[in-house]
Amino acid sequence: MGLPKTHTLDALSVGRLDHESGDVIVRYPGQVLVVRATGRGSYARTTPDRFGFPRLRRARAKQHFGYVTGDLVRADVPTGKWAGAWTGRISVRARGQHSMATPEGRINVSHWNLKLLQRGDGYGYSTRSEPSESTSRKIG
Question: What is the DSSP letter of 117?
Answer without folding.
Answer: E
